[in-house]
Amino acid sequence: MKFALFTHVPWPEDEQPSRLFAECIEQAVFAEQIGFHSVWLAEHHFSRYSLGSSSLVLAAAIAARTERIRLGTGVLIPTLHNPIRLAEDAATLDCVSGGRLDVGFGRGTFGYEYGGFGVDEDEAHARFRESVRIVQGLWTTPEFSYAGEFYTMNKLNLVPPPLQSPHPPIYIAASYTQQTLEFLVRNGYKLCIAVVQDTQQSLALCQRYLSMCAEEGMEATLDDVPFFRYFYVAETEEQARADTASHINWILDIMQWRRIFSERSEVPYRIADWRREREELPLSFDYISDNRAFIGTPEQCAAKIAELRAQSVEYFGCNFAMGGIPHEKVMRSMRLFADEVMPRFAG
């Protein structure tokens, strides 16, 4: 079974981004040392929810400190980029990393992220499909030309080309939108499962993916489908809950808070002030613990992973650094995972 590290690089108030980036890189280096297959970085903009506005830059920093671990984007939002520049930057990272890049694309969140870039939400899916096709075309086709709804280009030669042939693996994050799932299946892309979906919904999505691949006459398994969950392991269940509860609640609060902004964002304001003003509560820690997170002892976490494996999931991703959990606790949890959980799934 393969294991992945995933992070949004959250930015709680009063924390220094430079230190959080350094800790993220240290966690990725440690992940390689303990045998993780990959590290995946999210992209978000204008929000304390994530410092991932330049996730390819951060991935390059990790590439410089590592030798084997694969570098995944979970996910890039192509609608917020010029696809030519996105293809160039990703290809450059693939080259400097020695061909270790896995490129995940997704539509991302809407609201002020799209608004900040001047992108019309009504055009989001069409722009997404067009941008992914252009990036793939630039990676694979000399003198690439394209005439679409949003972009026109004539006989472009990408410099540099990616190191991997024919191109870095392409993953698509799908959730509730049938259009997205159809797009990835019909184009032969790989599925990736986000932390923000309930586990049972995510397993059902995996089965839809397999069924749709079969209908298209394609052989598909879940071996290369990264299945990400909020994750934390401690010596006791009580310790695991105590270490994570306030941080899971911060994630739930920031996700709810972000949705009230159609422009600007929550960054200049204090979350404590908003908590006093809000009129409804988000999901609870217990709900997340039961439905989206694997939090507990090594035995409890291993049992949940085993349940996924029984459903043919062979690529499991851990989001240890949830909502500002202190770095030393993240590292301790990763070490316990390596010592007490990973060996149960060797081979």
How would you describe this protein?
The protein has helices at 17-33, 55-65, 83-96, 112-116, 124-140, 178-186, 199-215, 237-258, 271-277, 285-291, 298-310, 327-340, and strands at 2-7, 38-41, 70-76, 101-105, 144-147, 152-156, 170-173, 190-192, 227-233, 293-296, 315-319. With 347 residues, the protein is an alpha/beta fold. The protein has one domain (2-345): Luciferase-like domain (TIM Barrel, Alpha-Beta Barrel), CATH 3.20.20.30. Helix 1 packs parallel to helix 12 (327-340), helix 2 (55-65) packs parallel to helix 3 (83-96) and helix 3 packs across helix 5 (124-140). The radius of gyration is 20 Å and the shape is globular.
